[in-house]
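Demo today. Your pick:
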Amino acid sequence: MNRFAITAVLALSTALSGCNLAPNYTRPGAVVPPSFPQGGPYPRAKTDAPDVTKIGWRAFFTDPRLQAVIDAGLANNRDLRIAAGNVLQARAQYRVQRADLLPTVNATGGATFTNNALGAGGGAGAVGAGAGAGAGTGATGGGSTDFQIYQGQIGISAFELDLFGRIRNLSRAAQEQYFASEEAQRAARISLIAEIATAWLTMASDQEQLRLSRETLKAFAETSRLTRAQFEIGVASELEARQADTNYQGTRNDIAALTAKIAQDKNALDLLVGAPVATEQLPNGLAANRLTREALPGNLDSSILLSRPDVLQAEHQLIAQNANIGAARAAFFPQISLTAALGTISTALSGLFSGGSYTYSVGPTIGLPLFDAGRNKGNLDYARASQVVAQATYERAVQTAFREVADALAQRGTIEEQVSAQSARVNSAEVAGRLSDARYRAGVDSFLVALDAQRTAYAARLQLVTTRLTQESNMVELYRALGGGLAEPTPR
């Protein structure tokens, strides 16, 4: 090929290098209201509240033991390691795909040794001339000539000139999948922090209920013993004795169930952390003081959801499918590949890089799909269908995020009232228990009324612990739903 043809091919490649057949990407329109619900059960936004996404988890979770457990989980959790491995895989795949944008340069060397027999006739052989010449000898009636050729070259093989953006779109798709895997890792990190905190708080709540049950068991055991003794001497009825024993046995059952549940809580915590949690890092009942910071957003604009890792992951996957359409479209157009080499050739190894002859070759090829039995059309249809699925997945991710935040806000707006009401209920139940006992001793009420008051007070105290757990867990869920937990460096 002459220089004009080479120049023409390169000029055409440069002119068309900006051709991209992928659809122009635009983020899908809003599929949720512009702001979160307000009024009714929903709290008002606090204008002076900090940006939740800027609050690191160490600042949000104030208990040092819980902080240590979360630290261990971030270091050992297997799901997080899988997510990190997926990032490495996607990054490597992107590098492989991106490499197709540039030619692969190879260096090769070789030697050819040929022995040709001479026909009839005598005479001394002479050293041949020319690129393929070698030393030869001959004799009357026969002889031979040896040829030795050495060559070395540097060249590119079948480099596709990306005129219609096929390779660039495949590279873009791989890049977006890599970005999506990074967002998936960030989402896994947020979820893990929230899951560990919730499991730790659940264990603390169960420990607190176990403590209350054990305290109550002592009182119920004494009441049951006294009532049984009174029944045996005819002072109390069998109904009263049986009711007292019912309270006692019911509390025994609660203790056994809570003991098993705490062991299960520990197992769940160990699984989340990825290693046994040290005893000194475990909770010791649900503390009276709050273990989490306020996580109410300063503004209730739903656009905050667009920065959640799971939403960003879905968007990157949508962009990747958009690029795949461009690659599928480009397959309908000609593909031009270029093979070129530059090297030297010599009859002596010592003269390969000094006295040899320089050689070069350029060989462009062009391929135009004429008949493929519908393969390219099928690939394009598949890419378009995948984009539809990816867009629906993205929209669902936004809607799911909106619902999670709205649910957490609805509970946040009423949980303070629930805690206040349950605390008042406990106080009233305890006072009622004391009054019922006094009325029984004064002969005004039967002992059954006092026993029922004791059981009511016990149930109210257990329910208060559950309500306080709901309060703490709600803060954790709202923090997670708003994308909190990423302010500190993500381990790689």
